[in-house]
Amino acid sequence: MDAAWLVPAALGFGLAVGIGGSAAVVAAHARGQRAAAVVTPSVPDGVEEVIDALETAGIVLDSSNNVVSCSTAAVALGLVWNHALVHQELVTLVDRVRTEGAAANEELQLPRGPFGDAHVHLLVRAAPLGSRFVLVLADDRTEAHRLEDVRRDFVANISHELKTPIGAIGLLAEALESAADEPDEVRRFAKRLTTESERLRSLTHEIIELSRLQAADALEHADRVLVDTVIAQAVDANRVAAESHRITIVAQADPTAVVWGDESMLVTAVHNLIANAIQYSPDGTRVGIGVSRRDGAIEIAVTDQGVGIPESERDRVFERFFRVDSARSRQTGGTGLGLAIVKHVVQNHGGDVRVWSQQGRGSTFTIRLPEAAAAAPAAPSRGASS
């Protein structure tokens, strides 16, 4: 054998053994690299950047339905967990796209998470991305569906509620005309006509108020508001109604309590709570208003000694047109919108409203609002004497 060939052959064999340990080790290493390339395939150029920039949920899956890239929105909506799709509906859609080789759209209602009964409404589009990947885009339509439900329910409720006073006014007008020669009947029908027209006016006003509160710019004129002033105005607006039922209003405010918001809206909210307390309280009882501070919040509590709210209905008291006692509400002119307005006012101010009640002992409605930071002291004007 030629010595010139043996030297490089020996050197080559020695390098293979010394560096890799054996030819088998080198081969295994090469196979491992190829396996890694299959398990974590590279996404086509530019796709990851696009996914990161998406405001909608974007997901890229490989041929084994492993998630190789996804946007933050996809995780926030609970669509992806541990590099896999959470919902079988999405997996089924992806498999269909992969089988048919064509894009597909579908509207899905999926659970928001493992707890509770909240759902998200998604418009999902899945499409092949090259020969190995599938791209899934999910547009969150939950808010649009919620607003559509609110609009539909609101229109239905308004139609129902307006029928009663409008129908009554029509019947009373006919009765008034037929009783033209009977002064006593004319006065009686005229009084009832005035009552129904006042109900209609109140209902229309509160519908407009509630619609305004649901607008996105409802707090365009926010400022520092003294809670004392809010309570004083709300109490004054209800004083005549309270005196007519011999109900005493006792207010214990805090002159240093300040919140950030719209004073007129906050007066409306507290006014509605006091009016509601008077409406459902027996004559000769008391309505109390108190203010307290807790964990950076100002709490305004309105307590009555009324009929109370059944436990089964406490979660519904803030719904539009809901009445605990429909007969009593209609008798006193209630519209069923007062507490719904309270809820929207408080939500617009970044707070919440809670209710405690016990049948036969009364109810307490508590508004919680973020406390306004102390105002910075005004800088002294130039030339002012010390």
Give a verbal description of the structure.
The chain has 386 residues and is an alpha+beta fold. It folds into four domains: 11-39, no CATH class; 47-140, Beta-Lactamase (2-Layer Sandwich); 144-214, Helix Hairpins (Orthogonal Bundle); 219-373, Heat Shock Protein 90, CATH 3.30.565. 47% of the residues lie in helices and 22% in strands. The protein contains eleven helices and 14 strands. It has helices spanning 3-20, 23-39, 47-53, 72-76, 88-100, 142-178, 183-213, 227-244, 263-279, 326-332, 338-348, and strands at residues 57-61, 67-70, 80-81, 84-85, 104-111, 119-129, 133-140, 223-226, 248-252, 258-261, 286-294, 297-303, 352-358, 362-370. It has a five-stranded antiparallel beta sheet with strand order 2-1-7-6-5. A five-stranded mixed beta sheet has the order 9-11-12-14-13, covered by helices on one side. A two-stranded antiparallel ribbon has the order 3-4. Strand 6 (119-129) and strand 7 form a beta hairpin. Helix 9 (263-279) packs antiparallel against helix 11. The longest helix has 37 residues, at 142-178. The chain is elongated and about 90 Å long. The N and C termini lie far apart (112 Å).
Report the biggest beta sheet as strand number plus sense, adding barrel if it closes.
5 strands, antiparallel
Q: Note poorly predicted spans.
A: 1-40, 326-333, 375-386
Report the CATH topology name of the largest domain: Heat Shock Protein 90
Supply the helix-strand structural class: alpha+beta
Which word captures the global form? elongated
* Spatial extent as radius of gyration: 35 Å
CATH-level-4 superfamily name of the largest domain: Histidine kinase-like ATPase, C-terminal domain
What is the tally of helical segments?
A: 11
Strand-residue proportion? 15-25%
Sequence of secondary-structure elements = HHHEEHEEHEEEHHEHEEHEEHHEE
Which percent bin holds the helix content? 40-55%
What CATH architecture of the largest domain would you give?
2-Layer Sandwich
Number of domains: 4
Task: Calculate the mean pLDDT score and round it.
Answer: 76
Largest sheet, order of strands side by side? 2-1-7-6-5
Report the CATH C-level class of the largest domain: Alpha Beta
Count of distinct strands: 14
